[in-house]
Amino acid sequence: MSTLPPPSVRKHPENSIESKIYSIVEGFETNIPIQNDRYRLSYCLYKFIQGEGDNPEILVNSTKIKIEGISKQELAKSLNEKISGLSKN
Q1: What is this structure's pTM?
Q2: How many Å apart are CA 35 and CA 2, to the nearest integer?
């Protein structure tokens, strides 16, 4: 039996809404140390921008991410400020 290589990953263009959201959340790397938590939060924020998800105040609690060095309210406020300029394509 042989192991197959993992599937290739196609990245979004740099100016896409997905890339912008993921880069915003990556900016909180020191406050959200677990990469999977950042990915989960980014996906949920993307759904929020698309009109399908909850706002950042709810997401910070519901996604069960590990937060260090900042309160949940401060993180939610910062995320809300940074994504307020983004709109769905």
Answers
A1: 0.82
A2: 29
